[in-house]
Every structure is written in C-alpha cells, then in structure tokens.
Amino acid sequence: MIGFIGLGIMGENMARRMLESGQDLIIHNRTKDKATALLEKGAIWADSPAEVAQKADIVFTMLTTPSVVESVIYGEQGLLSGLSNNTLWVDTSTVKPAYSEKWAKDAKDQGGRFVDAPVAGSKGPAEQGKLHFLVGGKKQDIEEITPLLEVMGQSVQHMGDVGKGSATKLAVNLTLVQSMASFAEAVSFGESVGLDRAQLADLLLMLPTTAPVLDGKRDMIVHGTFETQFPLEHAYKDLQQLSETAYESGAPLPISHAAKELFAFAKQKGLGREDFAAVYLALKQDK
Ligand code: NAP
User: Fold this and answer.
1) Digit-coded pLDDT (tens) for 114-136
2) Catalytic pick from 123, 164, 169, 237?
3) Using the 8-state DSSP alphabet, how is residue 286 labeled?
4) Nearest protein CA to atom 8 of ligand 1, as residue
5) What are the tens digits of pLDDT across the range 45-99?
6) pLDDT at 286 over 80
7) Residues 6 or more apart from 39 whose CB is under 8 A from it?
8) 271 C-alpha to center of ligand 1: Å?
9) Is the separation of the CB atoms in 70 and 98 below 8 Å?
10) Residue 130 annotated among the catalytic residues of the structure
11) Which CATH number fits domain 2-160: 3.40.50.880, 2.60.120.10, 3.30.1490.480, 3.40.50.720?
C-alpha cells in the first residue's frame, strides 16, 4: 500500500497518477473535500497522518512550508508516530536541506527510512506525469521507489545523500524565480516607456535571452489573469529557504535576495495565492 499526504495543486495530481497506475493508495489531507475525486476513484481515506504511515509501506508527503510539514509529522497523530518496520517516507515538498536531514534522523529514530525527492515542474507536468524528481538518499531506497517516481515523472535525478535533492531544488528555483522576476521587470519597464505589452512579451519570448519556461507565463502577463499553477507565496518561501541555506554555507546571493524582497512586496500586496507570474503586478505602474 502507498500513502499520500498533501493533496494541493501538486499532490492531488501526483496521487491521481499513482492511483491510475493501479497502486493501492491511502490518502490524507487537512481539507478532506480535496480528496473527494481520489476517493471516488478508489483511494482509501485515513483520518490522520499516523494512520497513513501505519498502513502504508511507502508514504509520500507534498506539503508547503517546513512548519507545515512539522505540524503533519510530529504529535500523537503525526506521521512519525505511525512509522515502523522500515517504512519509507518520501518528502517531495520544497524545503531547505537542513530540514530533510533532520527529518531523516527523526524517521530513523522511529525505525523508518527517509528520502527527499522534491520536484521540478509545475501543475501541468504533475497532471501529465512529466515531473523531474531531484532525489537525496540511499541508493537502495531510491531504487525501491523509482518505479513509483516514474509514474509521476519523466526523470529521477539522484543527487547524493539525504538533503542533496532539496539542495538541488533550491538551485533550480533560484533560476526559475529570478527568470520570472526579470521577465516581469522587462515588460513593466517596456510599458513605462510606451512599448506595447503583448508585442514586447512576444519579442522577448522569441529571443534566446529569455528562459523557455516563461512561454507558459505569456498569456498571464499579457491578459492580466494569473490562474495559479505555482503560488507566489511558495516562490517567496523557496527564496527564504535558499537564503537561510546560503547563510549557513557562506554563499553570497545578491540577485536572489533582491528577488526575494520583490516577492515579499508582492505577497504583502495580497498576491500570495496568485500564480508567481503575478509578481508583474507588483512592478506595473498604475495608469
Ligand atoms: P498547495 O496547492 O498550496 O497545497 C499545499 C498542501 O499543503 C495542501 O495539501 C494543503 O492542505 C497542505 N497544507 C497547507 N497548510 C497546511 C497546514 N497548516 N496543515 C496541514 N496541511 C497543510 O501547494 P502546491 O503548489 O501543491 O505545493 C506543494 C509543495 O510543492 C510546496 O513545497 C511547493 O513549493 C512545491 N512545488 C510546487 C510547485 C507548483 O508549481 N505548484 C512545483 C514544484 C514544487 P489543504 O488542502 O487543507 O489546504
């Protein structure tokens, strides 16, 4: 039996693919309503994270911030209290590596195992099973879960010991979030000097100087509608995780820190649950 905890934008799609591949799936989410479609397709509901861990051999989590993960794993009904018999916990949330390392130790203390396996790719790739898994942990554990990861993703990148998947994910999102911020800044600058928004956006996207991932953000910026694929508040959280990690390792992050403050400003403006492309609205001049 496979367990899945956290049925948000990413988790719901990942869990669905696992179910559709024929796996027996036991699921839990803070908001039970979000599990309805999966329950109708045959998943089993668990009343707590502990129950998922007791009944599953491998448990996936796809949650938001480190403190949310900790609220799900600790306590009487927490995931850790249900781990035993070598159960393997695979955390796919984006967090800093120090948390992955801490939770690996917690899992081991409970007789379980741990792998960090955050993902590159957003809502669309999660729906289509096209994610890239960035994985840290023991080779044997990763080999055991690879067939499951391949149901949800197109590649499995083993980056090293526990924590190295999370470290890699922070490096990936450094480029993603900076690219988004610089595209938004270029378009809002262009408009300020009288250029046409759509014409400029299309030109930028045609040139090799703009990251290809931004093709998917073109319509959001041109039409001003930001249907959420990657919530802006998570982009801000990732920059914070990056910042804390770089402080510990001593790496300077001058551009990421400027981007982080921009995302903080956008979140303060109430854009936290919009797609992260809405950072453009924080820059755009009111006319
Ligand atoms: P999301 O849609 O906001 O879903 C978050 C999940 O966490 C939901 O299951 C939510 O439960 C749960 N949660 C939030 N606060 C909670 C709390 N206090 N207690 C218990 N559960 C709580 O997030 P997402 O976009 O799927 O992202 C999940 C993770 O993947 C994040 O770490 C994100 O950075 C990362 N990620 C996201 C993307 C993307 O494009 N969206 C891509 C790659 C990686 P409820 O349903 O009850 O709210």
Assistant:
1) 999 999 999 999 999 999 999 99
2) 169
3) P
4) 8
5) 999 999 999 999 999 999 999 999 999 999 999 999 999 879 999 999 999 999 9
6) no
7) 27, 45
8) 16
9) no
10) no
11) 3.40.50.720
Q: Ligand 1: does its nearest atom lie under 6 Å from the Cβ of 213?
A: no
| CA separation for the pair 237, 231 (Å, rounded) | 10
User: Which of 5, 7, 10 has most ligand 1 atoms within 8 Å of CB, for mutation?
Assistant: 10
The pLDDT of 7-28, averaged and rounded, is: 98
Kindly indicate whether the domain formed by 168-283 is annotated with CATH number 3.30.70.141.
Answer: no
User: What is the DSSP secondary-structure string of 94-145?
Assistant: ---HHHHHHHHHHHHHTT-EEEE--EE--HHHHHHT-EEEEEES-HHHHHHH
Gap from CA of 122 to ligand 1 centroid (Å): 12
